[in-house]
Design goal:
The chain is α/β, with parallel strands linked by helices. The protein is 41% helix and 14% strand. The chain contains twelve helices and eight strands. Strand 3, helix 4 and strand 4 form a beta-alpha-beta unit. Helix 1 crosses helix 9 and helix 5 crosses helix 6. 47% of the residues are buried.
Length: 376
């Protein structure tokens, strides 16, 4: 009898793990595109590494605690200090919608871009990503709205998803001058955790809303909360940003991790709202993904790209060599950050959101550069 109970318990555990884990995506491990040529100098890479090391020291990477989360938020919000920005920043508080308009001098009020910041769902804000949102605003000419969504641990991840959806629906109908006008073109973009919310929003807009999204842009996105992508292991040592903080998490048995997520959010971690790569990727707007060869989320992008293409959607995947996770935040120091923004502009021109009028040289010149190195 005890043997039967044991076998029954093992069977129940396996079935629960299988249900929580969701689809096996190994069939989409189909390789990576050829990395773009490295354009940064050794001096630029050294300056970026100095900022990264200062960031890591300041946040004291290790186990998650309220004190560390608070410090992480402070340091992230200081990341744009020292940069000369072109756009003006206008705070917004409209019911449940919080964030800021990022408006360059050439901003088109009818072409709007929702930007969803990263930070592991624990940190980040419109302020922490101003260098990036300013570059997007200046070089695309779109009216950028940087969303301030609810974070862990004060709220659960479902709250962040709800805020992103509400933000997208709001932006479709609200212009920077506070008039109620429908956007002529609407783009959603985000990095890391914000990239996750971006891709989740694309499926929601297709299935459950009247919002028409013209394109999606995901910088180093987390597409699979179950953390089953191979690069979580083989890039653990090379990822300077995520490696130390995620190592303790990866040491926890996957069944326990998935079960805890379900208990907190009351949804399977493999639900497409949380893990967009698990969803139906057909009939989505054109999507650009960018990732680094050395980051842990590399295969999250690769699997999403291959599945989206197999599902008939238009997707592009660009790979940059030996960059830190979301190197776009360091575009003031490193040329690959500026290259990535140039590529975004070119992508939006290809899919008809922007009219081809800005040359690559003009775009590169307009991205702000830092003055000095911020050590955190």
């Amino acid at each position: 009898m005890s043997t039967l109970w044991l076998l029954g318990g093992l069977c129940a555990t396996w079935l629960t793990w299988w249900w929580l884990r969701g689809e096996d995506l190994a069939r989409f491990d189909l390789g990576h595109p050829t990395p773009r040529p490295m354009t940064s100098t050794e001096e630029q890479r050294s300056a970026t590494l100095a900022r990264i090391n200062g960031f890591i020291r300041a946040t004291n990477s290790g186990s998650v605690s309220l004190k560390r989360v608070s410090r992480l938020r402070e340091v992230m919000d200081s990341m744009g200090e020292g940069a000369q920005l072109t756009s003006r920043f206008e705070p917004v508080s409209d019911g449940d919608i919080r964030g800021e308009w990022v408006l360059a001098p050439n901003a088109d009020p009818d072409k709007r871009l929702l930007y969803i910041h990263g930070g592991g769902f624990f940190a980040g804000s419109p302020k922490s990503h101003r260098l990036l949102t300013d570059a997007l605003a200046v070089n695309t000419g779109m009216s950028v709205f940087a969303l301030d969504y609810r974070l862990l641990p004060e709220a659960n991840q479902k709250a962040a998803i709800d805020d992103a959806r509400h933000g997208l629906a709001w932006l479709a109908k609200n212009a920077p001058d506070r008039s109620s006008s429908v956007a002529s073109h609407l783009v959603v973009a985000g990095d890391s955790a914000g990239g996750n919310l971006t891709l989740s929003c694309l499926q929601w807009a297709r299935d459950e809303s009247s919002v028409n999204v013209d394109a999606g842009i995901a910088f180093c996105p987390s597409t699979d909360i179950t953390m089953s992508s191979p690069s979580f292991r083989y890039n653990l040592e090379s990822d300077l940003i995520l490696g130390k903080s995620l190592r303790p998490v990866l040491m926890i048995p996957s069944f326990i991790r998935l079960l805890v997520f379900w208990l907190i959010n009351r949804r399977r971690p493999s639900h497409p709202a949380f893990s967009p790569v698990m969803g139906d990727l057909s009939n989505l707007p054109p999507t650009l993904l960018q990732a680094s060869t050395t980051e842990m989320l590399l295969d999250d992008s690769a699997r999403y790209y291959h599945k989206a293409c197999a599902s008939g959607s238009i997707a592009e995947f660009e790979l940059y060599p030996d960059m830190v996770h979301v190197w776009h935040l360091f575009s003031a120091e490193i040329s690959e950050g500026r290259d990535a923004i140039i590529s975004v502009v070119q992508f939006l021109e290809r899919v008809g959101v922007l009219t081809p009028s800005i040359t690559t040289a003009d775009v590169s010149a307009e991205i702000p550069r830092h003055h000095g190195v911020n050590q955190g």
